[in-house]
Design a protein that fits this description.
alpha+beta, 30-stranded antiparallel sheet, Chloroplast_translocon_comp, 21% helix
């Protein structure tokens, strides 16, 4: 066979050279022979920079670069120096390997000291032998393997490229990736700094110039002054506005300002193993440990997360542990799968941190967080919570016990504060709450059973189709089966241990909820009983800004029956020598006595009388419906006052 050859050799300085060679067959023949006869060679040297390319179509390819400065290429934010980049491919034997070594790599704010990559190709298997990223305080090691889909892969051969592309464009990219080949990877992190993981956040924080913010604030204040609003600072202005539009007795909650991601600091180490593809289950095992994490003013000493995840079985937690000083959070069990069995505990946890934790978990739930903060604002103390979560996502079940130690409600010290609750398999919420103050004898005891309705989410036809395909063709590698067997053995051992240690917890919970699961209740029926005695009134009035229980005797019994849509209230309340103060009244109400009844949603006051100072008196008598729809012509409350001074400015605003 005859060829035509083109060669180009150029020499500059002693360390500069360029050589190009092109070989092309002249004689006609088969397409394969023509391709085998082709050759393209390129060689360049300039100082330490070297580049060599040799390509023989359908046979082999070689690519090599040394000492290439990426800064001069100006490829977006890519920076660094390629010390060595080499790729060798043999298309006939379907083999190849490649290496990459970069000094001081940088991309989109990701800063590194060195990056080393080594990969190998053999038949249908592409192996990532080593990927090491070194940073100032961090080191990441990644290994992996990808098996290309072969002709025996049913899903790939039947759908073809057109079917895969159509599925990817319709939003099922994850399914496409899984069906195109099997993969596994392992990430080892011997040491890492959290701040180095957040380059994008750091990049955004650097882009905010403090001088620009200062000028914007000054311009805003000047604009306010131009319309007649004068203030020394923006903080003072907000206080003035708040004073105009906030009632004097309203509790003002300061906004929770979560720090930015750029303020997250701390160290961590651990490993992550993951596998999937080939229409098999996607699985991952993780073992992560963190120390001395800081996020603005928040900090933790230890963070531990050990467990596994799979699409079929959900999340299996061997251990979740978070420690901040004496406060700890524990969790272990299964979650987000067909069946849930999770045990959790929150120990020595300040109540004031609960809204912050909720906002961190669900940052978009601002209204729910604000309502939770308003509810917990008057409550102080150390929280102890332990519980079990069972059932499924569609129909969850839960048992939980909450205790508050060294607690206060509205400044009233608590001798006892305990709530036990259960969400049963029959979709009922059972609860039993007991509160007792220290300075006065008495209690607040509320227990009940309320039906719960869960909203069932619909499943799309596409999701059903994908799930069916996954069940028809499932691939599980041998190394995954062995690991799954080991993890199953560990889980069974751990389950036996948990069953032994939780016998006391289950017995205590059953005793607290004893008698609440009334089997005679109809579906949808509500049953709540409340019992308030003497000093328990202090705890109720502590939640209200308009009244404070000072002393006396009280006996309140309240029952709620009926349904959630149409509850029926019955009960009674008797008072003897009671005293109540209020910011609405100049003098407290003393020597309060009388009886109040609630009969089928109607408030009935036989006679309620009180004294105000030495000369003042107050009398109440009459009936009043609790629902406007149940009012009648004879319903009214008669009130008689003598020497009663009222200070109720803006109370109805």
């Amino acid at each position: 066979m005859r060829y035509w050859v083109v060669q180009l050799d150029a020499i500059g300085r002693p360390d500069e050279s360029l050589a190009i060679e092109v070989v092309q067959p002249l004689q006609s023949g088969s397409e394969e022979n023509l391709q085998n006869g082709k050759l393209f060679s390129f060689s360049l040297q300039k100082g330490q920079l070297k580049a060599n390319i040799c390509l023989r179509p359908l046979h082999s390819a070689t690519f090599e670069i040394r000492h290439l400065p990426l800064d001069e290429l100006e490829l977006a934010s890519l920076r660094g120096t390629i010390q060595r980049a080499e790729i060798q491919l043999n298309f006939q034997k379907r083999r190849g390997h490649g290496v990459l070594s970069v000094l001081r790599p940088k991309f989109s704010g990701v800063l590194g000291e060195a990056l080393d990559v080594a990969a190998r190709w053999s038949g249908d298997v592409i192996t990532l032998e080593k990927t090491v990223l070194e940073q100032i305080s961090s080191r990441y090691e990644l290994q992996g393997e990808y098996v290309l889909p072969g002709s025996r892969d049913r899903n790939f051969s039947e759908m073809g490229m057109d079917g895969l592309f159509k599925r990817a464009m319709t939003g099922h990219l994850g399914s496409v990736i899984s069906s195109m080949g099997r993969w596994r990877m392992r990430l080892e992190v011997p040491r890492a700094e959290v701040a180095e993981m957040l380059p994008l956040a750091r990049l955004l924080s650097r882009s905010i110039d403090p001088a620009v913010r200062s000028r914007s604030k000054d311009l805003f204040i000047q604009s306010l002054q131009s319309v007649g609003v004068y203030t020394e600072s923006l903080q003072h202005l907000l206080e003035v506005i708040r004073g105009h539009y906030t009632a004097s007795n309203e509790v003002v909650l300061e906004d929770i300002s979560l720090p930015g991601l750029a303020e997250l600091k701390g160290c961590w180490h651990g490993s992550l193993d993951a596998s999937g593809g080939g229409n098999g289950d996607t699985m991952a095992e993780f073992d992560l440990h963190g120390e001395e994490w800081e996020w603005g003013s928040y900090n933790t000493q230890r963070v531990v997360a050990v467990g596994a995840f799979s699409n079929d079985d959900g999340l299996r937690l061997e251990k979740i542990f978070i420690q901040k000083d004496d406060a700890t959070i524990h969790a272990d069990g299964t979650l987000l799968g067909p069946k849930t069995n999770l045990h959790f505990a929150v120990l020595n946890f300040p109540v004031s941190l609960v809204p912050t934790i909720v906002q961190i978990i669900e940052s978009s739930a601002t209204e729910a967080v604000h309502s939770l903060r308003q509810l917990l604002a008057p409550i102080k103390g150390i929280l102890y919570t332990e519980g079990d979560l069972r059932g499924s996502l569609a129909k969850p079940e839960c048992d939980v016990q909450v205790r508050l130690l060294d607690g206060t409600i509205g400044g009233i010290d608590l001798g006892r504060a305990e709530v036990v609750a259960s969400l049963t398999s029959s979709s009922r919420f059972l609860f039993n709450a007991k509160f007792e103050p220290i300075i006065q004898n008495g209690h607040v005891h509320v227990q009940g059973s309320v039906p719960v309705t869960f909203v069932q989410s619909s499943i799309s036809e596409e999701e059903i189709e994908i799930e069916t395909e996954r069940s028809e063709a499932t691939f599980v590698p041998g190394w995954v089966k062995e690991r799954s067997k080991e993890s199953t053995d560990k889980t069974s051992e751990k389950k036996t241990f948990r069953e032994r240690t939780e016998e006391g917890w289950d017995a205590q919970l059953a005793e607290s909820l004893k008698g609440l699961n009334w089997n005679i209740l109809d579906v949808g029926e509500v049953r709540i009983d409340a019992d308030i005695k003497d000093g328990g009134m202090m705890l109720l009035t502590a939640l209200s800004p308009y009244a404070n229980w000072l002393s006396g005797n009280a006996d309140v019994m309240l029952q709620v029956r009926g349904t959630v849509e149409q509850p029926v209230l019955d009960g009674s309340a008797s008072f003897h020598r009671a005293s109540i103060s209020s910011p609405v009244l100049r003098q407290p109400l003393t020597n309060i006595g009388g009886t109040v009844h609630v009969k089928s949603n109607k408030l009935c006051i036989a006679l309620l009388e009180s004294r105000v100072s030495r000369r003042g008196k107050l009398f109440l008598k009459g009936n009043l419906p609790l629902r406007t729809s149940e009012a009648s012509l004879g319903d009214k409350i008669d009130m008689k006052c003598e020497v009663l001074e009222v200070r109720a400015k803006n109370i109805l605003r």
